[in-house]
Amino acid sequence: MNVISLSTFDLSLAASLLLILAATSLRIGLGLERRIVISGIRMTVQLLLVGMVLKLLFASEGFIPVGFMSIFMLLVAGYEVRARQKRKLRGSTGYLISTGSMLVSSFTVTFLALTVMVGVDPWYTPQYAIPMLGMLLGNTMNGVAIASDRLTTGMYDQRGVIEQRLLLGQSWQEASGDIRRDCMRTGMIPIINSMAAAGIVSLPGMMTGQILGGSSPLDAVKYQILIMFLIAAGTGFGVLAAIWLISRRLFDDRQRLVLDCLISVK
Predict the structure, then answer these.
(1) Mapping DSSP to helix (H, G, I), strand (E, B) and coil, where does residue 16 land?
(2) Whole-angstrom Cα distance, residue 240 to residue 247?
(3) Nearest residue to 235 via CA among 79, 72, 81, 63
(4) What does the pLDDT read at residue 2?
(5) Considering only CA atoms, which of 266, 239, 246 is closest in space to residue 145?
(6) Does position 204 have pLDDT exceeding 70, yes or no?
(7) First-to-last CA distance in the chain?
(8) How far is Cα 63 from Cα 69, in angstroms, rounded to an integer?
(9) H runs (alpha helix) in the chain
(10) Domain spans in the chain, listed from the N-terminal domain onward
(11) d(Cα 140, Cα 104) in Å, to the nearest integer?
(12) Do residues 103 and 74 make contact, with C-beta atoms less than 8 angstroms apart?
């Protein structure tokens, strides 16, 4: 089965719907029209560029180009996590923690899937490695960003409670335990909701894309199940690592809460 090719007119027609949405926002005073248009333009440019890059990667099939692309995706994801924080760790610490958490979780899970579960040879074949890593990184990035933002904001807002618990003799793990557990739950809720709704409320993008591309629905479902498990594991481990590392940074060796390492973004 051949995929129906989309023309420039088809894409323009879809873009016109976005412009109508922006005009509606302007008309009723939502204030989102600028962000809608800029996000649409940015998405179009980014996807066109990555389409050209992937075409070159698929043609080369070398480890070095795939490695460079993977590292670039990781660095951008780390930047996006830091950019979404209301209260950030000073210096490069926050960036290193978020990037390191995603490196350990997403890359490890992707490597395991490529070598053991999918069994593609070589394991860095770009047709498999880049899309799989992209899906894991994107979801892990969202989980880490949400959980990290919730953690630093929660620590700051409840600093009085935490310091009182420390004065009563609790360790930093005990004094901040409720906040950290709440942040971990918050960071993992999106992927848990996605798994709960998959197939009933929504048809995931990868599965839909494979079916549109002519794959057997059962084969598409199997791949989607695999990807959902991998994303859940990657997101969960990434969130756990980021929360632990950021929490450890917010307390010194004498078990004192150190909030002067945070900067607020207005």
Answers:
(1) helix
(2) 11
(3) 81
(4) 65
(5) 239
(6) yes
(7) 52
(8) 10
(9) 8-28, 33-60, 63-83, 93-102, 108-112, 126-157, 159-167, 172-175, 177-197, 205-212, 217-249
(10) 1-59, 63-264
(11) 11
(12) yes
**Global confidence as pTM:** 0.83
Alpha-carbon gap, residue 191 to 235, rounded angstroms: 8
Report which of 72, 78, 115, 71 is spatially closest to residue 93, judged by C-alpha positions.
78
Which token pair is 22?
A: 């922006």
Per-residue pLDDT of 50-97, as tens digits, reads: 889 888 888 887 899 899 999 999 999 999 898 888 888 888 888 999
Amino acid occupying residue 237: F
Residue with tokens 């950290």: 180
- Per DSSP, the three-state class of 160 is helix
Planar angle of CA 184, 145, 138, nearest 5 degrees = 105
Question: How is residue 91 written in tokens?
Answer: 């210096």
Q: Locate 253 and state its tokens.
A: 């060796």
Rg of the Cα trace of the chain? 21
Using one digit for the tens of pLDDT, what is the confidence trace for 3-28? 778 888 999 999 999 999 999 999 98
Q: Which residue has the tokens 């969130």?
A: 239
